[in-house]
Amino acid sequence: MSLLGLPSSSRNLLVVVSVSVASLVALGIVAFGGSSSSYGSRKRQSSKRRQSKKRRPHVYLRGLYNLGNTCFLNSTLQSLASVASFNIYVKNCVASLAENNNIVKYSVDANIAIQLNNVLDLLAPQPRRVAAHSPRALINSLGHKGRWIVSRNEQDAQELFQMLSSTLQTVFRQTETSLFDAGFLAKNTPVENRIITISRRTSCCPIAIVDQQNLSNPQEDVNPGNVVSQGPSSDNPLLGMAASRIACVKCGYTAAIRHFTFDNLSLAVPHVTNTTIEDCLAMYTAIDQLDDFKCRLCTLTVTLEQTQADILRHKSNLERVGSTPKKVKREEAVIFKLCNQQKLLQDALVNDPDTELEGVHMASLPPGISTKQTMIARTPKILMLHLSRSIYMANGVSAKNPASVRLQRLLDISPFTTTGHISTSASKPISGPSVPVNMYSSKSLAEVRRRNCLYRLCAVVIHSGAHDSGHFYAYRRVVELNTGDDYVDTEALLAETAQWFLVSDISSTEVSLDTVLNAGNGYLLFYERV
Ligand SMILES: [Zn+2]
Predict the structure, then answer these.
(1) Are 186 and 214 in contact (CB under 8 A)?
(2) From the CA of 20, how far away is ligand 1's center (Å)?
(3) Percentage of the chain exceeding pLDDT 90
(4) For the whole model, what pTM was predicted?
(5) Nearest one of 63, 60, 61 to 132, comparing CA atoms
(6) Under a CB-based contact definition with an 8 Å cutoff, are residues 378 and 241 in contact?
(7) What is the distance between the alpha carbons of residues 217 and 223, in angstroms, rounded to a whole number?
(8) Where are the domains of the chain?
(9) 253 C-alpha to center of ligand 1: Å?
(10) Which residues contact residue 52 at a Cβ distance below 8 angstroms, ignoring those fewer than 6 apart?
């Protein structure tokens, strides 16, 4: 499978997998365990285990058959199976269908949710070796949704994730709508469909917020700069909210701070040999300069200046034509109209520059320079990061950005979030700066957790190979059997106690955490807030 969705031959696929695993073995960074360990490696592992305080039980993962270029689907499903809150979300979705007696439960979307739930159940860690599963039923259910999977050669892992996310939200919305729960409907407006505008005079606390989708409850996000876990996204663990601001460099005017929900963030990867996930997030939230901005405040100011110059000109005309009553009347009418216009412009400049001014012919200004910045305003329970690796050349040819991106097991995203104080200055960040956190101190971790900004890596979808060929596989974090919901205190977060597995279609192999963090070619990253 390619990053652009072009098909690859299964021969390519086998070569890529065997090469990547073989090279990891050669480097001595694959710790074989579970189903694939030889007698020798098992013996070495046993001695290591005796040294550790607690003996790890064998855990087995079920593989998924590749039904023809379906590695993008297999790797995404394996990853999602390791995200605890996603599994709960899908279960709740299916439960909402079971409680529902209307036609919704027979819809295409409902069938996808049910089939997804079945597969996720099968992908849970097992105490003994289990046969691989064919995801045929799920693929068939996807086939009924538009052109999905019918043309699966054109799909990729990120598109699949987005489709599953929107499907689950649709099912929730349909089941709740059938129960006439308007409140739930308001809370679950589809992704990208919610725009909250804030009055420009909001440097510290917003004066007016208009949620265009939910006018009946405009106070819902009265403090949009805060990173909070409650609110419209609390039911859907995938939904977060971002704040985006465009500001004029010349006059500092901020048109509006737009808020929009997201279920994943697509991050550009810098064109370098080595980089980090923090660098990619910093690029996403950096202040960009745009050169095509039509500033409303600058336009109003210039129009007011022109109006005032016109008034002076017509007043001197009036003195000149003082002896001609007809001309005097005409000049007085023009001056009266211009004075009204002057008042409208002055009011708009003081009170609300975005007010529509009827009958006022606005000055035409050339586009100016503005800054644009987007930051995370509300953190989601599940943070899915897509590393965009497509490079488009001037001649239209696309290629893959091979930059190696080092991951963090524990990720502090507070430097990339708004912190409750929204700045409207064009040259300053929307919010911040954040205090750097020592990720090895439980006290610092506790502070980041309190701000809802601490995430733990659960799974990674890897794309290996070139842009137009290659293979998708996944690294999964697997919690020991019978440990419940994997809840940990801040102290315990400092040490990784879970096992990591490389899962590629039907095969699974235990790997070290370092292998995962240094894999470099991550494509989708699944982080869960802790
Ligand atoms: Zn301006």
Answers:
(1) yes
(2) 54
(3) 44
(4) 0.73
(5) 63
(6) yes
(7) 14
(8) 3-52, 71-175, 296-351
(9) 5
(10) none
Q: How far is the CA of 417 from the centre of ligand 1 (A)?
A: 26
256-306 pLDDT per residue, tens? 788 899 999 999 999 999 999 999 999 999 988 889 889 999 999 999 999
CA dist., res. 422 & res. 254, Å (int): 11
Q: What's the gap in Å between 246 CA and the centre of ligand 1?
A: 11
Confidence of residue 89 (pLDDT cuts 50, 70, 90): very high
From CA 168, how far away is CA 175, in angstroms rounded?
11
User: What's the Cα-to-Cα distance from 262 to each of 185, 196, 240, 335, 382, rounded to whole Å?
Assistant: 17, 14, 5, 52, 11
CA of 248 to the centre of ligand 1 (A): 5
Element (H, E) at 39: helix 39-51
**For residues 382 and 240, what is the distance between their CA atoms, to the nearest angstrom?**
9
pLDDT per residue as tens digits for the range 40-57: 444 444 444 444 445 566
CA distance 378 to 225: 8
- Residue 152 has which token pair? 């699966």
Q: For 428-484, where are the alpha helices, taking DSSP H only? A: 442-450
Report the distance separating Cα 524 and Cα 519, nearest Å: 12
DSSP designation for 417? B
| CA 366 / ligand 1 centre spacing (Å) | 11
**Paired residues of 499 in beta bridges:** 478
Instruction: Say how many Å lie between the CA of residue 267 and the centre of ligand 1.
Output: 29
Quote the CA–CA distance of 74 and 67 in Å, as a whole number: 10
Instruction: Write the pLDDT tens digit of every residue in 311-342.
Output: 999 999 888 887 788 888 999 999 999 999 99
Count of CB atoms situated within 10 Å of the CB of 168: 24
